[in-house]
């Protein structure tokens, strides 16, 4: 289950105003579960139309991070000033679509030589993004899921339709179908993990073969060709071709993982420091870091602005000497690795710089937190491979979830 820090409420039970205030507080769970999930649905729709993944600088994280930084630069005022009849989710999807269209209109290699931060500082987003048919596409896909996977389960269909199409809160759904809010949340998240997210991912990947063939044709054919607009294709695969999806691992509470004290028998577990010898697993970053030993350095994810507003960046600013305005490199008793910079290929150089710095300072022990796995919107599966070189650097400690991915 996904919990918001404030009052330990689950995101789907929060009002639009509560979600907006959580975004302004840089709440990691709301940023991940609301903002990035909503943007990803919008990206899937636009990628199907325009083949975004085959355009330089138009990968999901490049666009989502630019969108996020634009909103942050304006303190989310665009969402506060949206028209009363537009829900936060609809505005976010339409704002993302607006950004995509803006990027397509100005698309050129020279344009993408600018950094995401430079583009975010120049760009403008309409206070009320124009409405389009994206909500209808989402509704159509949810209806397909209801009929294909939950044809005889009326309660499951009602939960998905009420939350994802009608925008109702978990408590409202519970009162209408006669079960507890906790039961609604449990069933909702099970369906999201088991069917809904895999369905969107399959739908998102289903059209990739068309673009791959198009790119090949463009290179091999003397005729002019533009892959910008994809002609309509049959959306639904044959039912026999759709796999039975299994329930993935539930996401852990990012706030608890990065900040919260580990609890055992009702007591806080102290930071005893990582072990210094043995297998790489012995070099595991503690889940809760409240203080640092004399030789320890706190490694956190940042953005190039050096705003340090949320997550481990705020912890570094508050407790370990991170400097406002410095988005990369050593500072105080910390080391910043920019992660809100677009795709993984843009993060890799900063990770390599960190490795070089750690090798040059063997007297220090570097405690790498789950960088990029909070407000930046990546998962450990995405980020961990960037740190594989740390296996051979004995003064670098990684989070357990990173070791599990690379060993």
Overview of this protein structure:
The protein has 407 residues and is an alpha/beta fold. Helix content is 47%, strand content 6%. The chain has 16 helices and 7 strands. It has helices spanning 16-24, 28-50, 60-73, 77-80, 88-105, 116-122, 134-149, 154-165, 170-177, 181-206, 208-220, 254-258, 311-319, 344-360, 380-383, 400-406, and strands at residues 263-264, 267-268, 296-302, 329-331, 334-338, 365-368, 396-397. It has a 5-stranded mixed β-sheet with strand order 4-5-3-6-7, with helices on both faces. It has a two-stranded antiparallel sheet with strand order 1-2. A hairpin with a 2-residue loop joins strand 1 and strand 2. The longest helix is centred in the middle third of the chain and has 26 residues, at 181-206. It starts with 15 loop residues before the first helix and ends with a helix. The model is unreliable at 1-8 and 207-272 (pLDDT under 50).
Structural class: alpha/beta
Low-confidence stretches: 1-8, 207-272
- Percent of residues in helical segments? 40-55%
Major beta sheet, specifics? 5 strands, mixed
Give the end-to-end Cα distance, rounded to a whole number of Å: 28 Å
Q: What is the average of the pLDDT values?
A: 76
Count of helix runs: 16
Give the overall form. globular
Q: If strands are numbered along the chain, what order do they take across the biggest sheet? A: 4-5-3-6-7
Tell me what portion of residues adopts beta-strand conformation.
5-15%
Write a short abstract of this structure.
The chain has helices at residues 16-24, 28-50, 60-73, 77-80, 88-105, 116-122, 134-149, 154-165, 170-177, 181-206, 208-220, 254-258, 311-319, 344-360, 380-383, 400-406, and strands at residues 263-264, 267-268, 296-302, 329-331, 334-338, 365-368, 396-397.
């Amino acid at each position: 289950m996904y919990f918001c820090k404030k009052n330990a409420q689950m995101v789907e039970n929060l009002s639009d105003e509560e979600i907006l205030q959580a975004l302004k507080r840089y709440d990691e769970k709301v940023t991940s579960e609301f903002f990035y999930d909503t943007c990803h649905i919008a990206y899937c729709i636009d990628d199907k139309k325009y083949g975004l993944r085959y355009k330089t600088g138009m990968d999901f994280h490049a666009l989502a991070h630019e969108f996020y930084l634009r909103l942050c630069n304006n303190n989310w005022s665009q969402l506060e000033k949206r028209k009363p009849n537009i829900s936060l989710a609809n505005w976010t999807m339409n704002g993302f679509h607006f950004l995509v269209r803006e990027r397509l209109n100005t698309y050129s290699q020279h344009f993408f030589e600018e950094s995401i931060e430079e583009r975010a500082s120049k760009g403008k987003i309409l206070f009320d993004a124009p409405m389009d048919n994206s909500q209808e596409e989402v509704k159509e896909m949810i209806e397909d899921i209801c009929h294909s996977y939950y044809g005889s389960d009326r309660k499951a269909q009602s939960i998905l339709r009420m939350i994802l199409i009608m925008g109702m809160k978990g408590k409202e759904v519970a009162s209408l179908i006669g079960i507890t809010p906790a039961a609604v949340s449990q069933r909702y998240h099970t369906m999201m993990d088991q069917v809904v997210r895999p369905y969107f991912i399959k739908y998102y990947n289903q059209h990739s073969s068309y673009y791959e063939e198009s790119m090949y044709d463009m290179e091999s054919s003397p005729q002019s060709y533009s892959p910008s607009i994809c002609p309509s294709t049959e959306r639904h695969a044959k039912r026999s071709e759709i796999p039975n999806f299994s329930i993935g691992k539930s996401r852990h509470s990012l706030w608890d993982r990065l900040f919260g004290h580990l609890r055992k028998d009702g007591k806080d577990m102290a930071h005893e420091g990582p072990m210094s010898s043995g297998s790489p697993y012995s070099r595991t970053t503690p889940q809760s870091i409240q203080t640092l030993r004399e030789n320890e350095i706190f490694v956190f994810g940042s953005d190039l602005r050096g705003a340090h507003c949320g997550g481990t960046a705020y912890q570094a600013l508050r407790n370990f000497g991170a400097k406002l305005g410095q988005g990369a490199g050593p500072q105080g008793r910390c080391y910043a690795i920019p992660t809100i910079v677009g795709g993984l290929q843009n993060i890799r150089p900063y990770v390599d710089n960190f490795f070089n710095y750690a090798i040059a300072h063997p007297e220090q022990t570097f405690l790498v937190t789950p960088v990029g796995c909070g407000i930046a919107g990546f998962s450990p599966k995405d980020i961990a491979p960037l740190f594989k070189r740390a296996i051979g650097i004995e003064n670098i400690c990684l989070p357990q979830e990173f070791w599990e991915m690379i060993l």
